[in-house]
Amino acid sequence: MAHQAITPAGSAHDEHEHHETPVVFGFWIYLMTDCVLFGTLFAVFAVMRNQFAGGPTGKELFDLQGVGLETLILLLSSITFGFGALSAQAKKHGLFIFWLAVTFLLGLSFVGMEIREFSHMVAEGNGPDRSAFLSAFFTLVSTHGLHVTCGLIWIAVVALQSFGSQAWTPRFMSKLTCLSLFWHFLDIVWICVFTFVYLMSVI
């Protein structure tokens, strides 16, 4: 009789696990489509990188020191998010919220610095309408910034959900896994942006 009581619960758990697995797999597919999006934007930038139309070049515009700080902030946010994920695995709610809050603040700082850079460039008459080079630059970098902003909203939502009854359930952990994939993906894209757009334009 004891064995019969355990079997349905185990089956329900397995069924729930099988239900959550396609969610993560589906999110991987979404990330692949995002790779295509960013790959297209990188290709456009590669074609337009020397189309200055008499305007400033990347070497004249870009401040590698400031962009380097942005890069450091975003990479650090990936580490703090990792600590948050480990805290969630250990079901340490206080630590989880702390590391998520640190990650959120780092991501917010990154977006703030990016907006400041754009504002400064536009104020000096170097907006996206100045040349094909700047159009491609603003489109690529702002698309990444928009993704980071969506990630920040997602972090806030997950943090709020962790206070509810669904915290630490397989469904919640599945959402956290998808968010982790998304956040680390943005780091990888930014490293490509830093290298291909900023660094190669200045060197």
From TrEMBL:
Electron transport listed as a keyword: yes
GO CC annotations, alphabetized: plasma membrane
Alphabetical GO biological process terms: aerobic electron transport chain
GO molecular function annotations of the record: cytochrome bo3 ubiquinol oxidase activity; cytochrome-c oxidase activity
Subcellular compartments: Cell membrane
Broad class of the protein's primary localization: membrane
Keyword Membrane: yes
Keywords: Cell membrane, Electron transport, Membrane, Oxidoreductase, Transmembrane, Transmembrane helix, Transport
CDD domains noted in UniProt: Ubiquinol_oxidase_III
Regions that span the bilayer: 27-47, 67-88, 94-112, 133-161, 181-200
Membrane protein topology class: Multi-pass membrane protein
Heme-copper oxidase subunit III family profile domain boundaries: 1-202
A Pfam family reported for this protein in Swiss-Prot or TrEMBL: COX3
Function: Cytochrome bo(3) ubiquinol terminal oxidase is the component of the aerobic respiratory chain of E.coli that predominates when cells are grown at high aeration. Has proton pump activity across the membrane in addition to electron transfer, pumping 2 protons/electron.
Quaternary data: Heterooctamer of two A chains, two B chains, two C chains and two D chains.
Sequence similarity: Belongs to the cytochrome c oxidase subunit 3 family.
Protein's name in the database: Cytochrome bo(3) ubiquinol oxidase subunit 3
